[in-house]
Structure formats: C-alpha cells, structure tokens
Amino acid sequence: MIRVFLCRAAIVASLGFGLAGSTSAQIDRIKVRSETNQVQGTVEAITRDEVVVSSQTGARSIPASDVEIVFYGGQQELQRAQIAAAKGDFKEATERLDNVRLGNQERESVKAEVAFMQALIPARIALSGQTQTDEDGNPVDTAEAARSAGVKMLGFINDKRYGNSFHYYEANEIVGDLLMSIGQYDKAEEYYKKLAESKSVDVKARANLLRGRAMQVAGKYDEALAAYDAVLKTELKGKLGAQEMLEAKIGRTYSLASSGKVDEAIKTLQEIIAKADDDDTETLARAYDALGNCYRKQNDSKQALLAYLRVDMLYRTVPEAHAEALYHLASLWKEAKRDDRAREARDYLKQHYPYSRWNKQIR
After folding, report:
1. Which domains does the chain have, with CATH numbers?
2. Within 10 A of 37 (CB to CB), how many other CB atoms are there?
C-alpha cells in the first residue's frame, strides 16, 4: 500500500509522537513525507488529491500522496490509535480507537479519519499474518479475516460521506492487497487500476507497479514486464518515486529470469541490495526472494538456499516475502537431503501462513 514505502521504525521515528497539549489542542499537525518538520495549522478542506491547511502564513495545499499522517487537534485518543497502528501494535490501536468519542459537532474530516482507522486496523492485522481469535478464543480463519477486512474497507470507500477522503487511493490499494492475499488476483488488479485516476504522477505509477505485481503472481510475465517498464519510464522524484522505481526493478527481474535473461536480473538485484539501507526490510526481503528465484533458474541450489535463508532469518516481518522463502526452502532442503530442515520450513509455512498462495502450492 502507499504508506508501506517507509519502514515501520522510520515512520515511528519521523512522526515526532508528542501529543498536543492543552494550549495547542485544536492545532492540526500533518506529517509530510517530503519534509522534516510537521505542518501545523487547521485542516480546511480535503479531496482525494489534496489536503488544504490554513495557518498564520496563509493556506497551503499538500498533495494527498505526500501526506503521511494527519493528527487532528483535540483528539488525543485518535492520535494514540494512529501512533499504535504505525508501530504495528494493533491491540492498543483498537483499544484507543474504541475510546474515541465523537460529538455531533465534530468535524467531518475527523469522523472520516476514525472511519478509516476502523477499517484499516483489521486490514493491517489480516495482511500481517498475525493469528486472530474470536470472542471465545477460537482461531479465526485467515481467509475469512481478509474477506471481512475487505468488506469493511469497501464500506469506507463506498460511503458517500468519505468518498472524497485523501485515503481513497490508499483504501483501494488495501482492498487489492487483501484480494491478493486470498488468491483473487484479477479482482485485485481492478482495485489497483483505480489508483491511475489520481492526479499524482507517483500514485499513477503505483497503479502500474501493483498491477505488475498482480499479473506476475498470476504468471502473466510479459504483461507484468510491460507494467513495470511503464513505471520505470515515468519521471518520478522524491522518496515515494524512488521506492516505486526500486520495487519495479525488483519485480521485473522475475519476468527477465523467466525469459532467460537471468544474468541481467542478478546484476540488477545485486546492485539494489548493495544500495539498500539495512532497515529497508521490505525492499531487501523482496530482493533476496527475487535473487533466489534467479539462482533457481540457473540450477544453483546453494546460492538460492543462501538467498532464501536470509529472508527466513532476517525479514520475517514481511509476511508475503517470508512465505515465498519458506516455500522454496522446503524444496531446497529436501534436495540437500536435510529432511528435518525441509519439514521445519514446511511446518512453519503451514502454521503461520495457512492461506498464503505459497502454502497452497506446497506438497
């Protein structure tokens, strides 16, 4: 999704998580991706493409794609819920959100933020691979949790009160991600396409990136390659654009490897890994999975094993990438006649990612 680009630790560190005190309780604070300092003022208007903030220096329009988070003045429990969700502490986020009290006179933008958070938290939980339980403590079917979360997010998207939210494109991406998690790739692509309606060049490029990923998973490598190349041909700037370019380069290596251009793909991935920050876990996890795929194409089981082991040992916080690594590790360990390690990888995959497409393929 759009906010996934910055690693969780970086998000938490960058937000400056001090809650507004009594003297500034009604001042809104907006964390902008491309800036160090938060923008302070009053949120006056919101559309799918911008957030307008007024302050003593005048009104300012911030592109929605550049808005990382909005803290609304006078809403400390909502702020705490947002902070907890950014940290990945969904239990606290849910509890904080339950404590939010909205009066009849509350601003519509605040009501929209609460509604989005109510849909976002279950979606985040479903996509994280965390085990959920019902009120009686029984495990919740992972696929059912994803479907339920998708229904909630669709409820937000289709509610006329929130249809113009700056979260609109992010919400569509999340629905696509949830559909991907249960194997409905064609439907996921339908929601990813909606990002192309944005005025933002970055978000339009994101639509191609996500469509490429969906088509790649479905085995449509030529179509995926075209979508990734469309991203790379776009003039993207800033952190968001740089991350999209990086992800497109990683994604297209699967298509390159499938067409026999394995050496080119490996060179690309080695360059990406060498330049990546150590805390950019999502990029590194995807890159090492892609590298493992390349080595498998070359029948180099040893190097493939090492690549997937890095994901298993270092990047378990990236569920989809970890599930992919475990699937291949189960096979590679079996080839190495290490049935104990093969069984360990297979059991972990079945236990922690039971509805992953990788678990469905394993024998």
Report:
1. 275-363 (1.25.40.10)
2. 9
